[in-house]
Design goal:
The protein is an alpha/beta fold and 355 residues long. The chain has 2 domains: 134 residues, Rossmann fold (3-Layer(aba) Sandwich); 190 residues, Rossmann fold (3-Layer(aba) Sandwich). The protein contains 14 helices and 12 strands. Strands 1, 2, 3, 4, 5 and 6 form a 6-stranded mixed beta sheet that branches. Strands 9-8-7-10-11-12 form a 6-stranded parallel beta sheet, with helices on both faces. Helix 4 runs parallel beside helix 12. The longest helix is centred in the first third of the chain and has 21 residues. It starts with 9 loop residues before the first strand and ends in an 11-residue tail after the last helix. It comes from Aeromicrobium marinum DSM 15272. Belongs to the Glu/Leu/Phe/Val dehydrogenases family. Keywords: NAD, Nucleotide-binding, Oxidoreductase. Pfam families: ELFV_dehydrog, ELFV_dehydrog_N.
Length: 355
């Protein structure tokens, strides 16, 4: 794989030996505005893996922001390392200086391995930061509205498939109950759904088990997939939907918070052929970016939540478009996002800061 095999506007490699920073910022498109997307801190096996991830994630953010109705382009960043041992003030501030060097073409936020307090540290070097703590005027943990949006998307998928948005009495399998998954379980419990969870972190499982007697756990994702499910919600890292998973999945709906759930594009067709309703990940998990984007106008949680509620209508429109056009839901979501970028965007021009 080469960088120029992807249609990205800009890829920035950030290296600060003194702090140990090794990061990559990817800007897929700024046709709708400056790129907004989180920073992932992860111990990638290789630099090639990190590059592949940031290219895929920034591509997804461009489509996610467009489909969410935001005047923002698609960007993402990855920091190579173990956040438990490699994260430091010096490293985060060095990273902030690289973000600042882009002069507003990229706004960062939280992602896997980074949190709102980290954004406060990064903000000491750059103003192009969202997802800051409430104490510093930010939106706080963006997983709150990410989960809320996934829940709205799940209700829309239920409406499309079963004729009612209610999830009461339905069995939902949640793979990954970290930042997003645990909030999603709370919404499901409130609606009297039956929830089965799995996560390698025992503390995360213990937390959601304490929410309700209608929540139970299994030891692995394989065990979860073997359960008789109505809905499967992948909420961990990407690539969760493989050919083998589709063959074993009992759920009628797939709707989760993880990014890049399809192991390869052909999985969307396999899901369609299996009669499984797939709510595209970047459509339903846009609540987080809606939440942090609201900071750019002075954060108001109620306003952001009202906008995230619109994920229900967006998801339903995508599912209905797929049915009408005879295509997969993944293709329908792409076409809807591309239509907005084409009609509302700056016709492929790169976004430049106001001078």
């Amino acid at each position: 794989m080469t960088v120029f095999s992807h249609p990205h506007e800009q890829v920035v490699f950030c290296h600060d030996p003194a702090s140990g920073l090794r990061a990559i910022i990817g800007l897929y498109s700024t046709a709708l505005g400056p790129g907004l997307g989180g920073t992932r801190f992860h111990p990638y096996a290789s630099e090639a893996d990190a590059l592949a991830d940031v290219l895929n994630l920034s591509h997804g953010m461009a489509y996610k922001n467009a489909l969410a109705g935001l005047d923002l382009g698609g960007g993402k960043a990855v920091i190579i390392g173990d956040p438990r041992t490699d994260k430091s003030e010096a490293l985060l501030r060095a990273y902030g200086r690289f973000v600042e060097s882009l002069a507003g073409r990229y706004y960062t936020a939280c992602d896997v391995g980074t949190f709102s307090p980290d954004m406060d540290v990064i903000a000491r070097e750059t103003s192009y930061v969202t997802g800051r703590t409430v104490e510093h005027g930010g939106a706080g943990d963006s997983s709150v509205l990410t989960a809320f949006g996934v829940y709205q998307g799940m209700r829309a998928a239920a409406q499309h498939r079963w004729g009612s948005p209610s999830l009461a009495g339905r069995t939902v399998g949640v793979a990954g109950v970290g930042k997003v998954g645990r909030h999603l379980v709370s919404h499901l419990v409130e609606e009297d759904a039956r929830v089965v969870v799995t996560d390698p972190v025992d503390a995360a499982v213990s937390h959601v088990l304490s929410l309700s007697s209608d929540v139970r756990s299994v030891a692995s994702t394989e065990a979860l997939l073997a359960e008789p499910l109505d809905v499967y919600a992948p909420c961990a890292l990407g690539g969760a939907l493989t050919d083998a998973v589709v063959q074993t999945l009992s759920a009628g709906i797939v709707c989760g918070g993880a990014n890049n759930q399809l192991a390869h594009p052909g999985v969307a067709k396999l899901l369609d052929e299996a009669g499984i309703t797939y709510a595209p990940d970047y459509c339903v998990n846009a609540g987080g970016v809606i939440q942090v984007a609201d900071e750019l106008d002075g954060f108001d949680f109620d306003r952001a939540k009202r906008r995230a509620t619109g994920i229900f209508d967006t998801t339903l429109a995508v599912l209905e478009r797929a049915a009408s056009d005879g295509t997969t839901t993944a293709d329908a979501a792409d076409r809807q996002a591309e239509q907005r970028m084409r009609e509302i965007g700056r016709l492929g021009q790169v976004w430049l800061p106001t001078r």
